[in-house]
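Chapter review: from sequence to fold.
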Amino acid sequence: MSTARLSIVSANPDLTVSDIQAIFVREKLLSDELIKGHAYVAGKEIRGTFSFAEEQYMQEGESECEVVFRPLDDKNVNVARTTVSVKTESVDLFSFDFDPLENFDMLGYDGSTCRARIGGPVRMTLRPVLDELELLLNGYVVPYVNLSKTDRLNIAVRLGEDVALSFLLDVTLETGEAPVVLGESLLDFGTATHANATITVPEGGIRISLAESAKTEYNLYVDGILTDNYVLYGEEGSVVVSVRQKSDGKAVFSRIYTVKKEEPMTEQTINYALYFGIGGGVLGLAAVIAVVLIIWRKKNG
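The token string follows.
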């Protein structure tokens, strides 16, 4: 009687793994759930799990990582390894383009609400920093967002089931002069900008109020306080001047103004002005006399 020893050789699976894209989060580990792969032996898919070979923290940009496939049938199928391309990118307010940019002015962002002012129609688009990013407006996927009026919008960015960014966008449309009176003149919100808007306060202060024509439709707020008249004395440093519709409370504009006192004329400044005035008068008289003398000499040879 003879016997034979049978040896079973485990199969090496062929692996296919899709490139990974994810939203970058600082000091966050890459999750094994991001790995989408398949393993085959002789054309037949093998069940098992994929995981990163080592703990991997996210690195912004592109990198390569090693992944491991562990088959459920570990007696007949070997563990296998391969590399996968990983791309992670930050998604924030800088991920948007605004066209035309000169019509858009961002006033502030507190992590949940972005305040912005537009001077005309603006198209807001999301940069394709990752292939499958989606832009959502009030819960619906859109290719872009048109900003054309004073409004409050829910903006979100999503990658698959992960929400990368979500915020309220408060938009204020400002065109031409604002219905706000500073002293005796209208505040010109059409030309002043957020960066350089300054109110110079004369001695005794200056009053801010709504124009009479606007009082039936709008309310005036200074530093968030509802007011009919507000007097600036020049020591405030800065103030926020806003006008809101009475009907729904929406802001038609809002701007931060730097406040400074008007520099009083000193005695030295007054003396300089007097000297320059007298000096200019004397020089002017001398010029006239010189011209008269030239004409007289020409006539009298």
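Two observations follow directly from the output. Confidence is low (pLDDT under 50) at residues 188-196. The chain has three domains: 14-89, 93-173, 180-261.
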